[in-house]
Amino acid sequence: MNDRTVSFRVGLVLFATICITSILTVINSRSSFLPFKKQYQIKILVDQAPGVAPGTPVRRRGVLIGRVADVVDVDEGALITANIDEGKTIRINEVARVQASLIGDAVIEFVPGQKPDPKAETVAPGATVHGIHNPNPLDLLANIQGDLKQTIASLGSAGEEVAALAGQVNAILGSQDTNRIKRLLESTENAMQGFDRTVAHIDDLLGDEKFRQNLKDGIAQIPGAVTDARSLIGGLEGAIGSADDNLKNLQGLTGPLGERGDKIVASLEQSALNLQELLAQVAEFTRSINNSNGTVGLLIHDRKIYDQAMTIVTQLSATVRDVRMLINDPAIYHRIEQILSNARIFTDKIARDPARVVRGVVQPETRLK
Fold this sequence. Notes:
By secondary structure, this protein is an alpha/beta fold. It has a domain at 31-135. The protein is 64% helix and 15% strand. It has a seven-stranded mixed β-barrel. A hairpin with a 5-residue loop joins strand 5 (94-100) and strand 6. Helix 7 (295-301) packs across helix 8. The radius of gyration is 66 Å and the shape is elongated. 7% of the residues are buried.
């Protein structure tokens, strides 16, 4: 075997190895730019998309599911078109987050929203979802640069005020106010000594076992006193409520009286006049009775007329008694019933034939026309 044959065989084996390796790599690769891999597109609308370009990876929970196909500037922000591998789904409750690194590379990450739901609907092919942009640390530093300047300026102003305060303190603590500070320290020391004596007295007072027991008993009675006070307050509230109701009722009574006061006063005046007139008439009637010349006066003052009246009353009583005796007698009662019966029959006949009265007077031969 010559060298040429050996070289040919080695080259053939190397070519076959490269082909097989490439085929295995393509089969086991998760890249979305394979020419024979099926994909569908969705659109992502964000306010800004720094570093996003065709080929930018699109991940869902850290797993690569596609790549960016195109980025277009629109009025609402940036509209990103992404190619998603077939079989990879995105839920409508997931949020597309554009994250840029410090070196400028970007990635689009779909993360669960505030209310993750694994059973939520999937994003349909061609649909548009809204995303957000997470700034990197450098962007944050650039945003807070203005705030840092203002903060530094505020710190400078605060430093100047502290320096001014220190100057005023130095002026106060100068040689001229040394005596004042000494007196202040002495007063503070005296106050501390007085406070120590007060604490000692309190300690002596609380050291008495009987006093502590009385204090405990008093504190124990406080809840009962509070309960009694609440009961008293409740009773007072009830009394106040009753008084309020009475005042309302009185107001309801006095209101109509106030509205009809003129009519009521007029009625009272008329009633007083009528009463006065009635009393005058009673007085006149009394004077008439007391007058001996009147009928009632004669009846009262004249004994003869009184005796005659009594005689008449006695006779009337005897007459009524005799009539009652006649009525109570069976024979007379039966006779009276017969008379009444005959009278009833007579009146009935007269009522039926009034000509009977005329026929009793006129001759029977005379005919009435």
